[in-house]
Specification:
Blueprint lengths: L10 H4 L12 H9 L9 E13 L4 E12 L3 E7 L5 E11 L2 H6 L7 E3 L1 E6 L5 E10 L4 E11 L7 E9 L4 E9 L21 E8 L3 E4 L3 E6 L6 E6 L12 E4 L2 E6 L11 E6 L8 H18 L7 E7 L8 E3 L2 E5 H4 L5 H11 L4 E3 L5 H20 L10 H11 L9 H23 L1 H15 L2 E3 L1 H14 L9 H9 L5 E8 L4 E8 L17 E4 L1 E3 L12 E4 L3 E4 L9 E3 L9 E2 L2 H12 L9 H17 L4 H6 L10 H17 L5 H20 L9 H16 L3 H16 L11 H10 L2 H12 L7 H13 L4 H13 L7 H11 L3 H13 L1 H7 L4 H12 L5 H13 L8 H35 L3
Parallel strand pairs: 1-11, 17-18, 18-20, 21-22, 23-30
Antiparallel strand pairs: 1-2, 2-8, 3-7, 4-5, 4-8, 6-7, 9-10, 10-15, 11-14, 12-15, 13-14, 16-17, 19-20, 23-24, 24-28, 25-27, 26-29
Bound molecules: 2-acetamido-2-deoxy-beta-D-glucopyranose (NAG) (6 copies).
Length: 934
């Protein structure tokens, strides 16, 4: 989730800040997505109950087992089809009938004694994990039987999937020790035992695990009894309590010799049943897990309170597994398996998330994978809810929801959202749905939200649900509570948000004569061109929550009115003309809001007054700023008005309010990079950030918050980018140590943050030193260090000489130390700034013939070169350059012909924007710099 930052920054700045890859939270979603079209079992025979016995042999790397499944015929058939991985060896199959079909039963008075059923044939379906048991004849509806299957399987040892075995070293004895555990999500139960492996088949399980006496076995429920094994005195069978109805993927099996801690919840409340939480880890690690136990107990209380029901098991085991390799924890019901680093981690949300899945997933289960999406989004929402309560204001939860909200604002307002990435698409769709839940919590009110969820859980516990059931429960509860007009349904409201790859923008125009306003909705588009087809068809259900200056009060988040898929509405009884209004405070709904200039200016003036600024909460301050800049960037708002909104930053020290500023400095800075205005903009950035940075101090302070640390590092990166002298001096001093070292190719002693400022603002000699390090980079060192150096070497300079030299060496001279991938990387890095792509363009024009020959057989490099050299110009001058080249070399672009045609179209759009906005920005900056004596 910190993760989401990735989407906010464009490539050139991306590598300057520490960012994670895409949030892990979407991994299971993508997996679920892949399963939507999976084949389904025939529904002729369904399971009622399982008895499962597993005996793992860790030393031999295999296991043996027996499963007894009681089944009922729903339709007449002579076949029983169930899941079993092809690698599972079936040793014996028995079928025993113990109840006749419905018709026979009506006729007969005596119960049927258990009768063996003749099995005609057992087939494994080729290449499919299916086992078909063909019986001697057809049996009718209502027939009941027990299938007994004995099987052998292999323990996985290179992945943490199915039933697996991993080793660790006990540091005290230096002994190599093993443990066995299971991870069956989403559909891996079939690798461990034959079963009806679909989430909707929820039935009770009785599980027995064989173990050596010195080990401990764990499963979903508490241990019921232990029995001796006749043939082998050093082994025993552990029998566990019967589980409530549950899906196959939640079955948990563990055999280990870990140490553990016990935590009991709510012993003070004698009426509530006591939940015993046990945290397990290898003896060396167990002391790092003390906090985890406390967090689990606290989170469980928060969740029990939220759902209004207690956890269904008397125990919960949480294990920290060394060498656990799956991306997500194995959230078996009552037995959760974490990576050591996650259970021992300082952060809290990993734990909260898995506990949420104990309810949403294990207790109430999405019927099929297509229903997993809503479930996933609701689980994300509740993870945030739990984490925020757990942190209790001591710390911020990744700026929730602001950071991820901004990322979907950027994504959905693109000409082509998500590009081709399914991962991004899944993740932003899920983020959007999560934000719809948040919107409902605000607009229906927390009591209604919670009651709806409690009702939902009470109705669906131990059962399954369809995605739409969640929305229906909200509709019902909201109508009961009188917070939703009977003509409206939450299903319809939610659908209007989650079925589109777009978000709306709301445009509020006040009429100051009669105190009314027209409110208008349309598709939010930010990147140009805005020629998205069918825009006029997009309409949403939008809650209009309004805050007014004359009765400033942010507690009530009930909408004044809903836009019911209406293009435009009018609201009346607004405040007097000298009082502002705010629509959609706290980002209640995921949409930006555009006002008329007068309202914006009233807001800017109010915010700039340090005495009253904080009467507007920080998320709303951030929103106002973020909306203004983005709408100006989109061409919908005058840039002078948007810049006025930054004046309050002079006093602002809350990092949530600052967070959008860095992204916008990056976006706008890049946009106006090629014009004279850019220098003035950099002075403005220095004026804005210097007091902040000086106040924060150069060095981290003991015990400071993550937010403050983040604010310091961001302001430093951006100040350096803008040429702040003390930063550049510091960077050069650090770099000099490298230049003076005896063997500079051994390693790089310079902190990453210093490299870009040196290549950007430093001397040619310093830059050249960097270039030599790449050329002489020893093969023994890490490749990603070289990549970082190459990215900065290409992406940071503003000096044409450096860029031309790099291109001379890599393209013209074909220096053997650079691969095609390096060249590709260099081209893409050069799109990050005007001097980069302009120099590349000039280089292309000057050396056209040579390059054409050189890239003759490398169309991907040629296309990438033409793309990088032509598409990102933003001004008339650039348009002229590219048009001229296009005319001059017509017919010679080859595979890149379509690139340049598209480029010309885009540059025209951008030029129009620049012509309109650059003079406005310049005028505003001139005034600002004059007032500040620059
Ligand atoms: C199946 O039902 C029969 C009859 O009720 C019972 O004896 C047997 O133990 C059951 N088996 C399982 C696996 O539950
Ligand atoms: C992992 O399992 C495979 C197949 O069973 C076996 O060949 C291999 O030796 C095992 N590796 C380890 C480290 O035990
Ligand atoms: C704000 O509104 C809430 C609920 O509508 C009310 O309880 C509270 O007293 C109001 N606060 C002020 C300062 O008016
Ligand atoms: C906002 O609405 C006003 C009047 O309703 C209209 O004049 C203006 O063009 C709209 N602005 C945008 C960017 O849609
Ligand atoms: C910016 O604010 C100043 C001072 O409040 C005001 O005079 C000016 O008109 C505003 N600029 C724009 C473009 O709204
Ligand atoms: C790049 O090479 C050209 C000749 O091919 C030369 O004129 C130019 O000076 C070189 N540029 C740099 C910065 O080395």
């Amino acid at each position: 989730m910190a993760a989401k930052k990735l989407l906010l920054l464009l490539p050139a700045v991306l590598f300057l800040l520490e960012v994670d890859a895409l949030g892990k939270r979407s991994i299971d979603l993508i997996a679920a997505h892949g399963l939507i079209s999976d084949g389904r079992l025939p529904r002729e025979v369904i399971p009622n109950r399982y008895k499962l016995e597993i005996q793992p042999f860790p030393n031999d790397g295999n296991f043996k087992g027996t499963v007894k499944i009681n089944i009922t015929w729903v339709e007449r058939t002579d076949e029983i089809t169930l899941h079993a991985d092809p690698a599972l060896e079936i040793v014996e199959t028995l079928v025993t009938q113990f109840a006749p079909d419905d018709e026979t039963e009506k006729l007969s008075s005596t119960p049927l004694p258990p009768t063996p059923v003749a099995v005609k044939e057992i087939t494994k379906t080729p290449k499919k994990p299916l086992l078909v048991i063909k019986l001697d004849k057809e049996y009718g509806q209502g027939t009941q039987a027990q299938i007994t299957l004995r099987f052998n399987g292999k323990l996985f040892n290179d992945t943490s999937e199915g039933l697996f075995r991993h080793f660790y070293i006990d540091s005290k004895t230096n002994e190599k020790k093993w443990y066995i555990a299971s991870h069956l999500r989403p559909n891996l139960a079939r690798r461990v035992f034959p079963c009806f492996d679909e989430p909707a088949y929820k039935v009770p399980f009785e599980i027995s695990i064989a173990r050596q006496r010195k080990m401990v076995a764990l499963s979903n429920t508490p241990l019921k009894s232990t029995s001796n094994m006749d043939k082998n005195p050093s082994w025993v069978w552990d029998h566990f309590d019967e589980t409530p109805p549950m899906s196959t993927f939640t079955v948990g099996i563990v055999v280990t010799d870990f140490a553990s801690y016990i935590y009991n919840t709510s012993t003070e409340d004698a009426l509530k049943c006591v939940l015993q939480v046990k945290v397990w880890g290898r003896p060396d690690y167990i002391s790092s897990l003390e906090d985890a136990g406390k967090k689990i107990v606290k989170s469980m209380k928060i969740l029990e309170d939220f759902w209004g029901t207690s956890y269904p098991f008397p125990k919960l085991d949480c294990l920290a597994l060394p060498n656990y390799q799956a991306t997500r924890p194995a959230d078996n019901w009552g037995l959760i398996l974490f990576k050591e680093s996650e259970l021992g981690s300082k952060t809290t949300w990993h734990i909260a998330q898995e506990l949420v899945y104990q309810w949403l997933g294990a207790m109430a289960t999405p019927f099929w994978w297509s229903d997993a999406h809503v479930n996933h989004a609701l689980a994300r929402y509740l993870t945030a809810y739990t984490t925020i309560q757990l942190l209790d204001g001591t710390e911020n939860y990744n700026n929730w929801p602001i950071t991820m909200l901004y990322s979907i604002y950027y994504e959905f307002s693109k000409r082509y959202p998500h590009g081709k990435s399914t991962a991004i698409k899944q993740d932003s769709a899920s983020t959007k749905t999560e934000l719809v839940f948040r919107m409902l919590n605000y607009t229906l009110g927390e009591p209604t939200f919670k009651h709806a969820m409690q009702k939902f859980m009470a109705d669906r516990q131990f059962k399954t649900f369809f995605g739409d059931d969640i929305w229906s429960t909200f509709t019902e509860q909201a109508r009961n509570d009188g917070v939703l007009d009977p003509s409206m349904s939450i299903n319809e409201i939610a659908a209007s948000w989650i079925t589109k790859d777009r978000l709306p923008v709301v445009n509020v125009t006040r009429n100051y004569q009669d105190n009314t306003a027209t409110i208008h909705q349309r598709v939010y588009l930010r990147e140009r061109p805005h020629d998205v087809p069918d825009q006029e068809k997009f309409l949403w259900w939008i809650p209009i929550v309004m805050i007014r200056q004359d009765k400033l009060n942010f507690t009530n988040s009930t909408p004044t009115v809903w836009m019911k898929k209406e293009r435009q509405i009018t609201v009346t009884d607004l405040p007097k003309s000298n009082k502002f209004i705010i629509i959609n405070p706290e980002e209640i709904g995921p949409f930006p809001v555009l006002y008329d200039n007068d309202n914006w200016n009233m807001l800017a003036q109010y915010l700039a007054d340090n005495k009253v600024r904080t009467t507007i909460p920080v998320n709303t301050r951030a929103k106002l700023l973020h909306d203004a800049w983005n709408l100006a960037y989109a061409g919908d708002l005058c840039f002078g008005t948007a810049l006025n909104m930054t004046l309050f930053l002079r006093y602002e020290r809350d990092y949530i309010a600052w967070d959008p500023v860095f992204t916008m400095i990056d976006h706008i800075g890049r946009h106006i990079d090629s014009s004279e205005v850019h220098k003035k903009f950099q002075s403005y950035v220095r004026l804005l950030l210097t007091p902040l940075y000086e106040e924060l101090g150069n060095e981290p302070q003991e015990g400071e918050s993550d937010g403050r640390a983040h604010l310091r590092s961001s302001s430093k990166v951006f100040l350096c980018q803008a040429g702040y002298k003390p930063c550049i001096d510091e960077a050069q001093a650090a770099f000099r140590k490298w230049m003076e070292s005896d063997n500079p190719d051994e390693g790089n002693p310079v902190a990453n943050q210093y490299i870009c400022p040196v290549f950007k603002w430093g001397t040619n000699e310093e830059w050249d030193f960097g270039l030599q390090r790449i050329i002489k980079f020893p093969a023994t060192r890490k490749a990603n260090e070289r990549t970082y150096l190459l990215k900065t070497l290409a992406g940071c300079p503003i000096d044409a000489w450096k860029i031309e030299k790099l291109l001379n060496i890599t393209v013209l001279e074909e220096n053997g130390n650079f691969t095609d991938n390096d060249v590709y990387l260099i081209f893409s890095m050069l799109t990050g700034g005007a001097s980069g792509y302009t120099t590349l363009f000039n280089f292309l024009e000057k050396n056209w013939d040579v390059i054409k020959v050189r890239f003759e057989n490398k169309p991907h490099l040629w296309n990438s070169l033409i793309t990088s050299a032509t598409t990102v110009f933003k001004t008339q001058e650039g348009l002229d350059m590219v048009s001229e080249l296009y005319l001059e070399k017509q017919g010679e672009f080859g595979t890149a012909d379509f690139v340049i045609e598209k480029a010309l179209k885009n540059i025209k759009e951008e030029t129009k924007w620049s012509n309109e906005n650059l003079p406005v920005i310049e005028r505003w900056l001139d005034d600002y710099l004059k007032i500040n004596d620059v």
